[in-house]
Amino acid sequence: MKKRTPVKDIMTSNVIALQTTDDLETAESLFKKNKIRHIPVVSGHQIIGMLSYTDLLRISFADATDEYATEVDTIVYNMFTIEQVMAKKLVTVTSETTIKEVAEILAEKEFHALPVLENGILVGIVTTTDLIKYLLDQY
């Protein structure tokens, strides 16, 4: 295992992002369609937050097995904006940050994804899943 491997080797660079003008229904659709759990929120090219699928679950009062769940979710989603639900205090890394450093940050914090920035512009995202896949490839 290389100790100085940069995160650019494992990050997702084709990032799906939300604009602050998008709604939570759009966010939920992107989560499900792309089978992802974290979406950066941008204003132009600048990242301003991170929305997780867990964030949506926290505000949803509907039971997934309820036949009216879609309608209830829609009503609840219309009560909030992405900016109200997203995490705003972000920890970011650069593409040259080592995988070890990323693992240390994620192990220490209570989140599971880090935006990767270059000169303030979002260029990727690295998640705990990316780290696990990298470790599995090492064995």
Automatic annotation (TrEMBL):
<dbReference type="Pfam" id="PF00571">
    <property type="entry name" value="CBS"/>
</dbReference>
<keyword id="KW-0129">CBS domain</keyword>
<dbReference type="InterPro" id="IPR000644">
    <property type="entry name" value="CBS_dom"/>
</dbReference>
<dbReference type="InterPro" id="IPR051257">
    <property type="entry name" value="Diverse_CBS-Domain"/>
</dbReference>
<feature type="domain" description="CBS">
    <location>
        <begin position="86"/>
        <end position="139"/>
    </location>
</feature>
<dbReference type="InterPro" id="IPR046342">
    <property type="entry name" value="CBS_dom_sf"/>
</dbReference>
<protein>
    <submittedName>
        <fullName>CBS domain-containing protein</fullName>
    </submittedName>
</protein>
<feature type="domain" description="CBS">
    <location>
        <begin position="11"/>
        <end position="67"/>
    </location>
</feature>
